[in-house]
Amino acid sequence: MAGASIEQKEMNIEDNEVLIDPSSLPTTSAKDTTTTTAAAAEDENGVKKPNYKPLTTKEMNKGRREFRRIRIPPHRFTPLSENWLKIYTPIVENLKLQIRFNPKQKTSEETTDMGSIQKAADFIKAFSLGFDVDDALAILRLDDLYIETFEIKDVKTLQGDHLARAIGRIAGHNGKTKFTIENASKTRVVLADTKIHILGSFQNIRVARDAIVSLILGSPPGKVYANLRNVASRMKERF
């Protein structure tokens, strides 16, 4: 019955999704459980204390099945196909997961970290939002990277030419302003119409967000550059 329910779930998956679905892990037997409570050890006073071995990933997971489903926007299908090898390799080789497009992404018995499936989901989500695959790859290597998304209307209600000028101020001539914000705050920024996605650490995201908010509110780029230089110098002194 379990196999039938799994097959039915697979049939309901939409074609425009990337799914991470961990394979079922073997449940721990009574013999395995006894090994986690190893023989007691004696302390200085001769009192016996139990010596518990750390639980393995399989024992903590208790054989439960997990999966992550990431919806891919239609305009990201072509980049996903072109960069599939770069996406597939770190997820399978480093995180020990199983993934396929239009499918299921499964953890295998080789999976060693319970958080790997969430990292893989964040990695694919970052790529689907428009980040370069090499930039999104940093999510798998670092633990303190996040993605923050907000819209221009969340800062100020703009329409028509006013909205277009705000987007132009954020991007700058040939993307100069956006690149300056990225380099000064050590983040990556994606402008997707009226939505803005920022990838970086919590503190660096705040620096980039404050600069972008100032531009949306009408601050001249020169003033924003000066503030970024001051913030960047303080960040260097801190480290």
Automatic annotation (TrEMBL):
It is found in: Nucleus, Nucleolus. Keywords: Nucleus, RNA-binding. Its main location: nucleus. Residues 1-53 are annotated as: Disordered. SUPFAM superfamilies: Eukaryotic type KH-domain (KH-domain type I) (SSF54791). It holds the Pfam family KH_PNO1_2nd. Residues 144-217 form the K Homology domain. One of its GO terms (cellular component) is nucleolus. One of its GO terms (molecular function) is RNA binding. It comes from the Eukaryota. The keyword RNA-binding applies. The keyword RNA-binding applies. Residues 27-40 have a biased composition (Low complexity). InterPro entries: KH-I_PNO1_first, KH_dom, KH_dom_type_1_sf, KH_PNO1_2nd. Coiled coil: none annotated. Required for small ribosomal subunit (SSU) synthesis. Has a role in the processing of early nucleolar and late cytoplasmic pre-RNA species. Belongs to the PNO1 family. PANTHER family: RIBONUCLEASE Y, RNA-BINDING PROTEIN PNO1. Component of the small ribosomal subunit, ribosomal RNA processing complex (SSU RRP complex). This is Pre-rRNA-processing protein PNO1.
